[in-house]
Fold this sequence. Notes:
- The protein is an alpha/beta fold.
- About 35% of the residues lie in helices and about 15% in strands.
- The chain contains twelve helices and twelve strands.
- The chain has helices at about 30-45, 60-70, 95-105, 120-135, 175-185, 200-210, 230-240, 265-275, 275-285, 300-305, 315-320, 345-350; strands spanning about 10, 15-20, 20-25, 50, 80-85, 145-150, 155, 170, 190-195, 215-220, 240-245, 290-295.
- It has an eight-stranded parallel β-barrel with strand order 3-4-5-6-9-10-11-12, surrounded by four helices. It has a two-stranded antiparallel ribbon with strand order 1-2. Strands 7-8 form a two-stranded antiparallel ribbon.
- Helix 1 packs across helix 2 and helix 8 (about 265-275) packs across helix 9.
- The radius of gyration is 21 Å and the shape is globular.
- The termini are far apart.
Amino acid sequence: MEVKKIPEVILCSGQKMPLIGMGTAPNPLTPQEALISIFIDGFDVGYRHFDTASLYGSEEPLGKAVAKALELGLIKGRDEVFITSKLWCTDAQHDLVLPALKTTLQLSITLFPSLLISLFVIFLWMMLVFYVSLKLFRKLRLEYVDLYLIHWPLRLRPGVELINISEEDVFPLDMKGTWEAMEECYRLGLAKSIGVSNFGIKKLNQLLENATVLPAVNQVEMNPSWQQGKLREFCKQEGIHVSAWSPLGAYKTSWGSNAVMENPILMEIARARQKSVAQVALRWIYEQRTSPIAKSFNKERMKQNLEIFDWELSQEELQKLSQIPQRRTVTGEQFVSENGPFKSLEELWDGEP
Length: 353
C-alpha cells in the first residue's frame, strides 16, 4: 500500500519527530508474537513514530518489529523510524538512569561457566557473548532511542509494583541529579532527544533552573476533554513540544473513560464531517500544534487515525470543542499520601485539579 508521509515537527534538539505516534502499551496484556504482528501492521499503514516505555513491556517486541519491517521492505533504514521510550520511576535517580536506558537498548545475557572450562576459554566465551549482546540481543535492537522521557516527576522504591503502591514507596524526584543523568544519555548519543512526561509548570520550571540540555518534549494527558491550555502555552514559550497521551480518553481500557469517544459535541461534529469521533479528536490535537500518541491495535482503525492531515476544523467547530467540560482521566492518586512528597493532587499536578 502507498504510505503518505506524516507531517513532522523539528524539536528544540534539532531532531524531526512525526506529528502522530502509535502507542504500544498493551491493555489487556498481549503475547509478544501478537504484538510484533500488530506493530508490523502499524508500519504497513504508515506509522513511523512508536511510543514505548520500560513499564509497558513492549520494548522487545517493538524492536523485533523494527527488524522485521526492515526485512519486509516497509522501511529502508533506521532513520525512517522515530522511537520514544521512558525511564520508569524505580530507576529515576542519577546512578540508575544510564543503566536503565542501556537495559532498554540491550538485553543482558547470563553466562553458565563450568569449572571444567579453562580460564582462557571462559575469557573467549565472555568476549563472544559481549559482542553478541551488543549486536543482536537488544531489547529494541537499536543503537539509540530518538526520544527518552522521564515517565513521572517522582521516584518509586525499587521493585514496587504500580498496582500496589504504599505511601512508603513514593519519594520526591531529585530533579537536578536525574536530569543530569538524562543529559549524559543525550551526550553519549544513546538518546537523540530527551524530555519528560506528566510534568506541570512548576516542575518544568524546577528542571529548567539547572538544565544545560532543554527538554524537547513534555508528554502529558491531553484530549478535547482535558485540553491543558495553560501548560501548552507555557511549553510553547519555553520551546518544549507537547505530546498527547490518551488522546481518545483511553476508551474501553481498564483505566480509561468515555469522555472523548462518547462526547456529544465530538459526535455531532463527526457526523456532520463524515469522520470518526477519533479522527475529530486527533485532528483537534494536531491543530493545537501538539502530537497525539494514538493507540489502536486494530489495523483499520490504525489507518483511520492517520487520515487527519488533509482537512481542518472550522472556527465554529473549534469554538464548540472549547466548551467541552474538562476532566482528567488519570488522577495519579496512587502517588498522593499524607506523609509522601505529594500530599494532594494539586501538589502532584502543580495547582491543576
